[in-house]
Design goal:
Elements (H helix, E strand, L loop, with lengths): L1 H28 L12 H19 L21 H12 L3 H31 L6 H5 L5 H28 L2 H13 L11 H26 L7 H12 L2
């Protein structure tokens, strides 16, 4: 009887020992993806998300500052609001297509010019973010961080961005051109007079374009391992990969 009891006690001991050996063997066979540091806190996740957003600003938003950065980018090109589409169609019907074309171009030129000066505003907004819910953002959809940034900063950004747009509209003569266009349109008999707030419209459309480009970079980092160009990005977004 004693021998039976001793034998039964010995079986699990051997089994656990064997399990330990198998675990070590398995771990030795699993290749290390990189030498990225372990993520130990929400602070690390926060830092990784900020880096991703800063990459979006550096790599993608900077493209918008070039000539035709808005105008020839179909993702962010500023089109005419409904009120101004009426102006555009009417002027074209009156043989003023060149003026109408120029009116569309200068709105996009104002946006391109403004982004050059406004980029630091977005950079500061990222620096000042406090991701209390950093992990939920990390585990969110492909533009969760961008959406958070947009929600958290849009009001303040608008207040800072609007005067920059106003200056840019004046700088590229958009105010003068559209004043001329609207004046000609309003002089047409029977049309409903228009007086659009170009500064407000272009400001909102420019901000929309900026966030669109940031979202593109965020998605790229989330889905493309090669876009995770630092050990921090590799480690943080590896956590996201595990949920898939």
């Amino acid at each position: 009887m004693k021998k039976v009891i001793i034998s039964l006690l010995f079986v699990p001991i051997v089994s656990f020992a064997q399990f330990g050996d198998l675990k070590k063997l398995a771990e030795s066979k699993i290749p290390k993806v990189n030498n990225a540091p372990k993520i130990n806190s929400l602070t690390d996740i926060n830092a990784g998300l900020k880096e991703a957003l800063n990459n979006g600003i550096t790599k993608q938003v900077s493209k918008l500052t070039a000539v035709d950065g808005f105008f020839k980018n179909e993702l962010v090109k500023i089109l005419l609001p409904e009120e101004l589409q009426k102006v555009d169609r009417t002027l074209r019907s009156l043989g003023m297509s060149n003026l109408a074309d120029q009116g569309l171009v200068v709105l996009n030129r104002a946006a391109e010019d403004a982004v050059k000066e406004a980029t630091p505003i977005f950079v500061d907004a990222v620096k000042n973010m406090n991701f209390n819910d950093a992990k939920s953002i990390l585990m969110g959809n492909e533009k969760a961080a961008t959406t958070y940034l947009e929600t958290a900063t849009s009001t303040a950004l608008y207040d800072k961005f609007s005067p920059v747009i106003a200056t840019s509209l004046n700088k590229v003569n958009a105010d003068k051109i559209w004043s001329q266009m609207i004046s000609k349109y309003n002089s047409v008999p029977l049309v409903k007079k228009v007086n659009p707030d170009l500064k407000d419209y272009v400001t909102k459309q420019t901000m929309k374009g900026v966030f669109t480009m940031i979202a593109i970079e965020e998605k790229e980092i989330r889905v493309n391992l090669k876009s995770r160009t630092s050990s921090l990005l590799q480690s943080v977004f590896a956590m996201q990969d595990k949920k898939k």
